[in-house]
From TrEMBL:
Protein name in the entry: Protease PrsW
Presence of keyword Membrane: yes
Coiled-coil ranges per UniProt: none
A molecular function (GO) term: peptidase activity
Amino acid sequence: MNSSASSPARIRWVGAAVLLVFALTVALFTWQEGSVLLLSLAAVTPAAVATMFAARWLDRKNRPGWASTVIALVWGAGGAVLLATWGGSWLAEAVVYIDAQGTLRERIPSSWVLTPLVEETAKAIGVLLVILAVGRSRFGGVLGGAMVGALVGVGFGWFEDAAAIATDIAANDLGYGIGTWIVRTLTSPTHAAFTIWTGAGIGLAMTVRRRWARPLVAISGFAIACIAHGTVNHANLVGDSPMASFITAVATAAGWVLLTVAIAVAARLWLTRRGSRIALDSPTVSQPRSDSII
């Protein structure tokens, strides 16, 4: 059986597994947070949907079908959330120790080192899952990878934002939760702006001819995502007051989103025009692309 014939079957199997994990994630978090989590998910959905369509715009020629899009989104909101929650908790406990003065300390900072590593790794698995489901030969290069990475980030951010709102409502009150919703809505694309770099690195690596360079290219994209994530998280720790730290963190996240959007739009326009020029200069009749994402 060839790759194109087996892709629909892979998509069905991977999609079913990812949906099952997502259902488990929703059930576990609803059990902990209550029905307010479901309401919070609904509240952050409009911002997530807008970011999703922006991500799908990135690669017009290799835009994934809705099955692949759902796999990316649902892994981000399900499997990546579970791995990040459990893995992050385990690592956070593993690096904690009590010094000679009886003070609790961390060998490695969890908020801006471990958390970005764990979360970006969990989301990177989602990018690889989409490649597995679609088929490596049909993957769309740097723009296709960036698009899938952004979609996984959208799913992760959607669920994380809802969980944060639900937690704040439970710990404080509805007014506090509404404030969190406003902030989370404004910074909704942040996780997409992290993982887009992981996806772009993986997508670009798959087009590199030298095999030894492929891991380096993929790891470089992942490293950018982790560094950006860590920088935004670290911004929460600076400032002379909680409000100053909050403003710094929001400004850092917004700045990274704007920078990433500018680079992504420029890359999309340049590569699209470059592809159009190549097609116009070609003396032969162009054939349908075999690497388009289903």
